[in-house]
């Protein structure tokens, strides 16, 4: 796909509700901000923050870095993501990916949204591999149990999609959404134990990105307006770039964004 212009991408993001008026409920956003501020690990994505954050401060970060409605009394309805902030961050991500390509860096890629974002990561992985970057795939097959609200414990297994994108799979053979930081923490523990190449860059989301940033790796990734941890991590300097977007739209809608990213990185 030919990369769109900035104006064309902006129109596409708003039309497909990747940014602009998004379908994420405002009440869900505020609930997640409250839980992150309260120290709930599920909403902290593996990050250890330098200080305590209040719910109001988290909202202020999300206004600045994501473009949600600044009105603290807007409690219900839909919320917003500023498409200009999305594109600005996408360009910053492209610049960091370009640096990895120039350095032929070791890179890890991972997603907690395998049903929607995998093609974005695969396109970047393929382009980086073509430029001589090593796509790291440690801890393949590692398993752990998670607690679920409906059936007690379920097994999750770390697998890699074609191209080297890490994600979780269940015993049912399906890939699963996750916020967990444990899989990335295990990947990095294996690399450290083996004395293998250490990632110069992690491209990820959710806890995968948080754990990489917490480990001191340059982490670039995507986050929805109900996932404040990575934005707060960026505010503290622990996460390099966070692209605000709705991470749950149909996968093909991300294709123009992917083309824009690769073009910015000089990998088109």
Summarize the entry for a quick read.
Keywords: Hydrolase. With 268 residues, the chain is an alpha/beta fold. The chain is built from nine helices and eleven strands.
Q: Could you characterize the architecture of this molecule?
A:
The chain has one domain: Rossmann fold (3-Layer(aba) Sandwich). It is built from nine helices and eleven strands. It is an alpha/beta fold and 268 residues long. 47% of the residues are buried. The model has no long low-confidence stretch (mean pLDDT 96). Helix 5 runs parallel beside helix 9. Strands 3, 4, 5, 6, 7, 8, 9, 10 and 11 form a nine-stranded mixed β-sheet that branches. A two-stranded antiparallel ribbon has the order 1-2. Strand 7 and strand 8 form a beta hairpin. GO terms for molecular function: hydrolase activity. Pfam families: Phosphatase. It comes from Actinomadura macrotermitis.
Pattern of helices and strands: HEHHEHEHEEEEEHEHEHEH
CATH class: Alpha Beta
The total domain count is 1
The helix count comes to: 9
Q: Could you give a short account of the major beta sheet?
A: 9 strands, mixed
Category by helix and strand content: alpha/beta
Please compute the radius of gyration using only Cα atoms.
Answer: 17 Å
Strand content: 15-25%
Distance between the termini: 9 Å
Q: How many beta-strand elements?
A: 11
CATH architecture: 3-Layer(aba) Sandwich
Q: What's the shape?
A: globular
Helix fraction, binned, reads: 25-40%
Mean pLDDT: 96
Find the CATH superfamily. Glucose-6-phosphate isomerase like protein, domain 1
Q: Can you tell me the CATH topology?
A: Rossmann fold
Uncertain regions spanning at least 5 consecutive residues: none
